[in-house]
Here is the input.
Amino acid sequence: MLSFNLLLTVCLIYVAGLFGVAFLAEKNAKRKKLGFFSSPVTYTLSISVYCTAWTYYGAVGSAARNGLEFITIYLGPTLVFIGWWWLLRKLVRIGNTQRITSIADLISARYGKSTTLAVIITVLSVIGSTPYIALQLQSLTLSFSVFSDGFGGQDPATASSLTALWAAVGLAAFTIIFGTRNLDSNERHHGVVSAIAVEAIVKILALIAVGIFVVWGVADGPNDIMSRIQPEIMRSQDIFTPRWVTLIFLSATAVICLPRMFQVIVVENSDEKHLSMASWAFPLYLFLMSLFVLPIAIAGLDILPAGANPDLFVLTIPLTQNQDALAMLAFLGGFSSATSMVIVAAIALSTMVSNHIVLPLWLWLTLSRSPTSEDVRTLLLRSRRISIAVILGLGFLYYQFTSGTGGLASIGLIAFLGVAQVLPALIGGLFWQSSTRKGAIWGITAGFILWAYTSFLPSFEGNFILSQSAISNGIFGLEFLIPNALFGVMIDDPLVHATVWSLGINTITFIIMSMISLPRPIEKVQASQFIHIFDQPATSTTLSRQTTSEELHILSQRILGHQITQKLFNKAARTQGKLSGQLPDPTNDFVIDLEREFAGSVGAATAHAMIGQIASGEAISVEDLIKVADETAQIMEYSARLETQSKEIEQTAEQLRQANAKLRELSEQKDAFLSQVSHELRTPMTSIRAFAEILRDEDHMGKDQISHFSSIIHDESIRLTYLLDEILDLSFLEHGKVQLKLSFTKFDKILKRAMNATQTLREQSGAEIQIPYNLKNLVIETDADRLSQVLINLISNAIKHSDADKPIIRFSLEHFEHTVQIEMTDNGKGISAENAEIIFQKFAKLSSEQGAGSAGLGLPISREIIRNLGGKLLYVGNNPGAVFNIILPHSISPLLDPAETIEPAD
Amino acid sequence: MTKKVLLIEDEPHIVEALSFLLRRESWQVEIHNDGIGAVNKVSELTPDLVILDVMLPNIGGMEILHDIRQNQQTAQTPVLMLTAKGQQKDRKAAEDAGASLFMTKPFSNQEIIASIRELVA
Amino acid sequence: MSDLEEPSVENLTSSKTTEDKPLLAQKRNDLAALLPICGVLFFATPLISTITNDNPSGIGGTAFYIFSIWAALILAAYGLARFLRGTDTNPDEAD
Here is the structure.
């Protein structure tokens, strides 16, 4: 049997060794030569702080009591780590870019750097972790008590308390020495991490050694072990139960949300690539940790007397087999498990307490009074040291309170569920854009209260706040308030019951409150920074500050210390092109960098508040500062909105410009037309007026002369009338306002009218019109007057412009499916290419055309008439005389025999 | 001394009316009814006055005026412009191009004769 | 004719290369999600009891099942980590 003194000596040597490792790592870290101490292996081993004394000793106990259930505690983290790409990678990236110092800091930063949230999560973490620390103290004292002969005849209870007290004091000392040496902007503790990596190796070696001894030393290999299985383990065969799933879920949650796990995975991570190794190496570590748990449990139940504490099988089996060295190693493994957990948890919690509670409180109390009071740096370190002592003290008190009650495992699981209350806000914060601070606060608070009521307080078994009767009969005897059957929901397993209630209500509250509340602008900014962390380089929105470098320098010295401040400010001065020793300008970039450095020391929310406080130059509260940030974000939003608006206005303006150009074009066309009309009207009026005045003023005129002048006036008047008629006609035709008198008419009849109207002209020129028989007989539904008007125009144009001695105008007819085409050709010289373009324009007087009688509206009117009749009038070229085509729709009504409706041809 | 007036105008009735009025004043009237050849006619006849219509076939009156003013021989000849387009900008353009007077159709006989008298005096 | 066809061929190839990168990233993300989903499927669904209940060797068989799957997942995670490290260049760029 080992003597207690020997045990104590070995322990002290071991602890001294850990101190040495920690010192060495710190020294190397200062020289920037970390090597192994910052390798992915160290990182992975430090994550094994997950395996506490609870898992080290308790897993075997759990296996002995409940079979394979213990394995769930390892399966959950395995699932999280093999899915690292989706969650852990994002957490680590955010942690590194935003200089996150704790899980409370992460959540508070995500939800708009909210101090309230940070405080809630800090309180929750402390309450959830205290029993866990007590658990480690308990396992330490238990393991010491195995060697109880060494207590030197003292009362076992007093001895246990003393052991626990000394353990707490020792751990506090170690943590304070290595956990609060400096205020690194990265909040990394190389010494502690290295010591923990060493402890990780010790605990796994110890457990494997005991396992190998059990399988091949006590038993004769795996088969022999299997044959020794007790019926009580066999009993729990159907392992897929609600409890099974709940345990996997809770352990998966715990590996992210436990403050100490967040500390080692996210905060202590120095390189994102380390995570990819941890993704398989940490599950492998867990695999090896659990490999021999079942054999040890089976062997313990087999060879140790009934009633032996299964939680201590790892120690008691080697002891009973007189393997003192192995027992020593097993003890050191358990010692390592307990101490590493306590140290890291204390660091993580003290960071949270000092950054999120002490510092804001101090800021609120003092900075408003005098900004040059105590050194923030000293305050932070002091508050952390005190926090560590207080946290370990709380753990010790809890241990004293509950010693002798409850299995180790149940306390661990209660802690898991406690910190799991952060999960909805965390996951929502990383993936759900609309989640809000209100949602997070209410969700976590609701979950926290339910957890306390259904799980945490009942664990005291009536010794704390809730009495025994309240636990079994409900508070005030109200049955629906029985902690283990809330509102009559009967779930056999209290843990599953508490999980469903607390996390269910938490999640629902979180979602509903997020949906009914609006995120503040700063939350939106942070939300998109967190959710889209991989899509964008890290930027920070800050207001342009009016601050002096001196003030920033003073503040920075307080928080970061003199040396780091000098380094930072010199670097910034150099980048701004200033001499070393000069203070850099407080540019936005510099202030953002500084805030980030501060965030590493005091957390995002506090750093934001402190910088803001200096920047604004007046004493205002954290809430006021957040309002300022909000306003900036709002201004940005407004300006974005204005930009959109101005774009819309630009578009409208462009449309207006286009419409305006169109109108101007139309107006110019109208002006040109009016000008033309004016000219065409003024010309005959000139003659009329001139001759009228001559007739009026002249006394001695011959009768012939008077009659000649009068006839000119008469002719010009007619021309004027005719012109006005044409203009009106064209206007009506263009606007489609003409009433067409459609009827089935034989073409011959239309033609005759045209012939009559042009008779004088034809006889004067001796023109000949050739009309084929089929055209004469064509029966067409049309307006006969209008069509004859077109023919008159075309015929008279052809005769007027003909240079032939005897103008010949030839008509021909062609039928198409729905149309007829009447072609008119003359024997003139045709229309020149130059004129061909303008013949259909209004008032287009051909260059060769002279004299009165034509205002140039004939062809435009003709074209409009044919268009109104549903056809087309086209000039198709010269052959060699001009060729015009009249295309008209042609459909013979089947109901009507056209021959009967037309007048007989004459 | 008999004054010589060249009338460049394509509307036959207006030509007739103006000729009647001018001859009554015992002026010698020469007539040209196309844009083409108008400038040559001016230099050929060296009239005391040119009455020039703005709207002429083939070559516009403004162009003819410009050419008249370019020609050394005819640069000083008074030109009375007639237009049926009563637009202000045409008047401005005609005056800039060197028209001695610009009248809009229809005109008063008395007025045009008085103006011509002034121009040829 | 060939003058007309050439630009369209170029368009096709260029659009393909621009689409490849997000597509690859998407596939990589999907692959990374596959492993934890498999883990949940094997460990936290009734699958675990249907497989292990048929096993006559009792708790030993169940343990064997769990440890085998576990080992396989660790191996797969090892392979995945190597693969992902080869494709993910973001952390370097971010630094």
